[in-house]
Amino acid sequence: MADLRVRVAGPQDWPAIWPIWHRVVASGDTYTWAPDTPEAQARALWMPPAPAVTLVAEVDEAVVGTALLKPVQPGLGDHVANAGFMVDPDRAGGGIGRGLAEATLVEARRRGYRAMQFNAVVEANTRAVGLWRSLGFEIVGTIPEAFRHPTKGLVGLHIMHRAL
């Protein structure tokens, strides 16, 4: 997506991130957080202190997506990154997720991470699983029936990984 710009978010970006975060989490089909997570808790989850970094994706200066990049573990595991991604549901399918993911992989390398691990990719989220596979991620394990999907019932959570 040629006109997509990804940058580090600041506190001033939260009002634009929150509606995306809220809609994505409230749908209950891609993240394990409670669909009714209050805004203050959402902000603490999505905009934690360093070494974590929150990114925003913009098109024509409007925030259309966001990502959270952080170590998957503290201390001796902090060389492996973890990331979460959200795209404005009204803009899904237009390449924003791919552009945001590619930029996040670059940012992870720039910050010295050696690999990236996703801990909870809902197996029913075939769009995300397909995107991650196309970007070199492999499913290294699946926790059976670990997610209560609102329409599909109990589904697995994939753990996905790739070297950087």
| Mean pLDDT across residues | 96
Based on CA inertia axes, which overall geometry fits?
globular
The structure class reads alpha+beta
Q: Which consecutive residue ranges, at least 5 long each, have pLDDT under 50?
A: none
- The first-to-last residue Cα distance is 22 Å
Strands, count: 7
Question: Short summary of the structure?
Answer:
This protein is α+β, with helices and mostly antiparallel strands.
Topology of helices and strands:
Elements: E1 4-8, H1 14-26, H2 39-46, E2 53-59, E3 62-71, E4 80-87, H3 96-110, E5 115-122, H4 126-134, E6 138-149, E7 153-163
Parallel strand pairs: 4-5
Antiparallel strand pairs: 1-2, 2-3, 3-4, 5-7, 6-7
Give structural attributes.
164 residues; alpha+beta; 37% strand
Describe this structure in words.
With about 160 residues, this protein is α+β, with helices and mostly antiparallel strands. The chain has 4 helices and 7 strands. A 7-stranded mixed sheet has the order 1-2-3-4-5-7-6. The longest helix has 15 residues. The chain starts with a strand and ends with a strand. The mean pLDDT is about 95.
